[in-house]
Design brief:
Chain lengths: 260, 260
């Protein structure tokens, strides 16, 4: 049985087709968020990749910020539930999941069976989110995707004293004019994100293994800095950005079995 | 007896010369903050205006963020103490003082004699501070000083749902592209600042009369919006931006009397 999970986020849409809630048959990511053609595009891209039609998909479950805008769905579920399910599929030993998205940060605690025990979220403050990194990349005139590689070249780390994105931005601008090496500055920026996120994680309680998901998990500099702050290894799966969509496809399968 | 108060802030330096801690003899403001020539310039400007030399000033007290950088001072005192003293001089009935500066917000509660009873401060988050207004003025491509006048032309008020400066900035940009009238948008920006500041004021307890000081008190739009949020008239003195320096000059006089 084929099911589909769609994750309509604020900055990207992701789609997964799975067989029997176990094997990934197709994955698609479109860097367009809710309110755009992204959801339609990603939906069709996944069908094409799997070589299937809509009719061959037993059930579609949609999640994410923009989940109520997607009409082809059979059902919706919260991001948190889908995310927990998806991460447990990718990394079965994960008990703490740190998810840094484009505009928010979540810390999830999972049971051994991958059920959600507890979670905390920050979606009110840009500090510690992907947006903080975007703002800093803008000031440094580099791409957000280049930050991880840049920080790996750091010889030391510039300390950034302000947590607030706006105040930290001024600080980074003044450090730039002091000719501080770019990699050291980027390392400081990653440390700032890591400190902020670690506070959230500790608030929710840390149980190992720790996994990271969300787009920012692809930034190796943030992963390194957070690992240091949490005093814990951090598992990252190459499909981490797809965890929500994977979870949605798995939950669609479970629903289909219950329904049928 | 002449005394001088100098207030070295983050974005401006102010200087006051008073006679017997009672009458203002000279005032000077320089729009340069700590770490610049601002303190020296404002010091000399005030002496020139009063037609006096350094030797004729009995005592100099310096306050503000940059107070430890000013060498000509006889003593230093915290901004909060000087501010309370200065506002009580300008507006003797004020019991609650809201001070919105370039990078922070303070709420002070004064006793009937103008002594500081209690205060709360936010200097960690740009939301609700002058910096929020600066960022928004930048997005709207107007001067911060023009915001008050602009909002007075508003016909309705655009509601801004994000408190965070960074997220609110994106919201304002998207409203702009919807061709929302500028004055309505500015009114919404002022309402956002007022809500944030009002929360701080209520946390500290509100006792009437309420006065406003700091550079942002010159923005009539913020004063109006805050008055509505606090359900209270707000007293603003034309010398409100100088309250810290005035308090410093008064406290310098009291110290001189004690010393002599
Ligand atoms: S601290 Fe800065 S980034 Fe966080 S909510 Fe305030 S303005 Fe936004």
């Amino acid at each position: 049985m084929l099911t589909m999970g769609v994750d309509i986020g604020s900055t990207a849409c992701k789609c997964i087709i799975m067989e029997d809630g176990q094997e990934i048959k197709a994955r698609a990511v479109v860097p367009l968020g809710t309110g755009t053609q992204g959801s339609r595009t990603v939906f069709e891209a996944a069908l094409t990749k799997a070589g299937k039609t809509r009719e061959e998909i037993e059930r579609i479950l949609v999640t994410g910020y923009g989940r109520f805008t997607f009409e082809a769905a059979d059902s919706q579920k919260s991001e948190i539930t889908c995310h927990a399910t998806g991460v447990h599929y990718l990394l079965p030993t994960a008990r703490t999941v740190v998810d840094i998205g484009g505009q928010d940060v979540k810390a999830l605690r999972l049971s051994e069976d991958g059920l959600l025990d507890n979670f905390v979220m920050n979606d009110k403050c840009a500090a510690g989110t992907g947006r903080f990194l975007d703002v800093m990349a803008g000031v440094l005139d580099v791409k957000t995707e280049e930050l991880g590689e840049l920080s790996s070249q750091a010889r030391s780390e510039v300390s950034i004293s302000n947590t607030c994105t706006v105040f930290a931005e001024s600080e980074v601008i003044s450090q730039l004019s002091n000719n501080v090496p770019l990699p050291d500055l980027v390392a400081g920026i990653h440390a700032s994100v890591a400190k902020r996120v670690a506070a959230l994680v500790f608030r929710n309680g840390l149980v190992k293994d720790v996994a990271m998901s969300g787009g920012v998990a692809l930034n190796s500099g943030v992963v390194r800095a957070l690992s240091r702050e949490l005093k814990s290894e951090i598992l990252v799966h190459e499909d981490c950005q797809l965890a929500g969509a994977i979870g949605a496809a798995i939950l669609a399968y479970r629903e289909a079995k219950r329904v049928s």
